[in-house]
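Annotators were shown the component list below and the corresponding predicted structure, then asked to write short factual statements about the assembly.
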Amino acid sequence: MTSIRIAGVEKRFGELLALSDINLEIEKGEFFTLLGPSGCGKTTLLRTIAGFYRQDAGDIFLGDELINDVPAYRRNTGMVFQNYAVFPHMTVFENVAYGLKVRKLPGDEISRKVRAALKNVHLEGYESRTPDKLSGGQQQRVGLARAMAIEPRVLLFDEPLSNLDAKLRVEMRDEIRAVQKALGITAIYVTHDQEEALVISDRIAVVNFGKIQQVGAPWEIYKDPANLFVATFVGKINKLEVELGEPLDKGLRKAVSGKVEFAVPSPGTEGRRSAILTFRPEDIVETSEETPGLNRLSGTLTSTSFLGTVASLEMDVHGTTIVIERHRPRKSDIPGIGSTVEFAVPPEACLLFDPETGARLGRGRP
Amino acid sequence: MRMGGTKRADIWSLVIFAGFAIVIVFLIYPLFDIFRFSFADKETGAVSLANWKEFFGRAYYMRAFGHSMVVAVLVTVFSALLGIPLAFFTTRYRIRGSSLLSTLSILALLSPPFIGAYSWITMLGRNGFLRNLLISAGIRVPQVYGLLGIVLADTLQYYPFISLMLAGSLMTIDRSLEEASENLGARSIRTFFSVTLPLVLPSLTGGALIVFMMSLSNFGTPMIIGGNYLVLPTLAYNLYTSEISERPGMAATVSIILMLCASVIIVLQQWLSARRKYASMLVNRPVVKRLKGVRSLLAHALCYLIVGLSTLPLAVIVFYSFRKTSGPVFTAGFGLDSYRQIFFDVPKTVANSFVYSFIAVILIATIGTLIGFTIARKRNLFVKILDPLLMIPYIVPGTVLGIGFIVVFNRQPLYLVGTATIIIMTYFIRRLPYSVRSAASILKQIDPALEEAGINLGSPPGRTFRTVTLPLMQSGIISGAIMSWVTSMNELSASILLYVGKTMTMPIKIYLSVVDGYFGTASAMSTILLCVTGLCMFVVIKYFNRGSDTFIAA
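Structure shown to annotators:
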């Protein structure tokens, strides 16, 4: 169990700046996720920590040890690979024992540790199987057991679930989390699946264009995004370009998008004429008498989708497409296409962003 | 991929260094000398264009050049005519015994080139039994020597390049592409021309170019059956053996022209294969249709006729090896005289062939695998330079390599002429690029994450290679090594220039026996080579589950 410190790390591939001034502190025993779209640099960062790439600038510390010049095979980081990388010419036992044999452990100790690792991933009794007799999920369990068996200072996960089917993905995700917490190993987890990141992580770093966009707990990332990229990448969100209008009372300000008018929080918008407004589909409320008139919207339903616990309604509001959600929908909550639907957006659900930089306006201000 | 920041010399730097040493000493050095001699005056040694002027000025040389082109074009065309229908029928229609057909055509492909030529002489030569038979039946048959013989023997040996490569891609076209075409309203004939053919065209042209290249640089066939019909390889050989001087001027010039032709073909092939490649993830294999009645009969007849023709020369040789002989002539009845003769008279020759090829293969497999690994996994500047240099042997016909070797290893510091080493090195250099390529392509199918997993688990790169990579490459390496052994056993064009009495090998002895008219010895020795070739093929197919692509790459 080790903390990790990444200070000013930069990595180039030819012209491409894959990592730019990365600074992170990951605590002992933390489950830390690097989340971002493909090509954002998250895997590059993970592979740099593993020692498969050498950064062009900056330092990486495992605990107090500077590991810049430690070769990959001496870093003692247990990696779980996207395509499992289970050695096809070895049995399950031999796979898990591989790192222990390299470490020249006595035979009985190897055997004990392999069994313990396989027990952790619920693969007891599979010792003499060969990988071609295993399902994808089982192969990834072998990969996980193999990485854990060496008692690494940190577990590195490179999109380990992306090749599994949806149901298994959820199951494995919970297991990875449970095993990591039980053993208390620091873990760095790379994924492009925002839902997976939200569920599994203690903290998330959202990465794009080789830069850290925001670091925070899942709740913070979702509810309090630092910029437009984080807001749109994590979860569903409605996005409108708005003209900012006159101030209203209670610290609100008018915002207009075409014929739609909103009351939005004014802090941070001083002196601005335009902004990007976002709100999440699930934040809308049913209209009632006390909702402020300004945020009441009505639109024509253009399509609906029913997802069991949620119904998602897509509608046309004066030429702007807006998606709202209704939870635990009853039949009457999903009207026919073409019906008029009324709803309201609470002002506190409205987030505003700078149209040029994407920076959040008024974040952390009252 | 760099492992950490330590910059110590590891095993891979050593491999790259060895790769460069081999390329420089055994390729660049001899080829440079050939180049130098072609631009040198015969008497004074001064730089001169005399050889080149002479080549382009004299009809004798230009005629050989023309002959080579005629042979290559005709062989390619006829190979396509045989190969395309064979590939199409065996993959799309149910042909009984189609795996036997492909095995026999691979055997024809791998058999030493001079065996086919020599066999056609016994059938249709001056005193050929088939010719005599036909003449006594009143049919006038020309003698097989010259252009006719070369084209006949070459075509029947090389057409499998086209049929096997084409069959390979016909079998891996996704069926749904053709179904999509038919679903969109195209009739099956139109589907064939607008979908199927364009998809398999890259492998058809690829196969055709290999055939062109092989027939252009083939030495054994024109040497044995060509008579006065000189082509570039036989011209170079004749020039070299008659120019007893230390400066092989004209032979060098002819060699360079041969290499230029070969380079053009290689560049064309690279360009074509880079331009059009349709990777298919192979979801649905194409359907094999069942033909009925006369159509089925005709399809079978055609396929068996083509393969039968190419197997005929091999069968004749085996048959003749068991005929009774008296000295050089066959007598009535059957016996093992010819084999007895070999094992009493020239056991050393048989042993040489086996020993030299074996040593060469050990070198080829180990060094080829190590270099292949650096090329596939370590892309640094040195590797990027080494990689294309290793392509050189592809464009160096055996005759040219032989001349180069005899020129530079006939003097200090490396005096190798007359040794077994020079023959072994010939085998080694000629096969090395195939081995490097094959190792690199096996590695492309091994996920680099497996090696990373090994390293991540604490195993240093060398140990990871030994415990993870090598075991996964093993079957590919062994089947590649077996193929190298076969081709080394059958090597003639370079070793015929380099051998001395005590380093004679079987192909050389066969050639000399044919020239001297000892057909019995030649047949028996050819049969031994054929058996070795067939046995190796059997092992590769049976124990390594390799498809026909292994043999084409050979």
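Statements collected:
1. Chain B has two domains: 65-321, 334-554.
2. Chain B has a mean pLDDT of 85.
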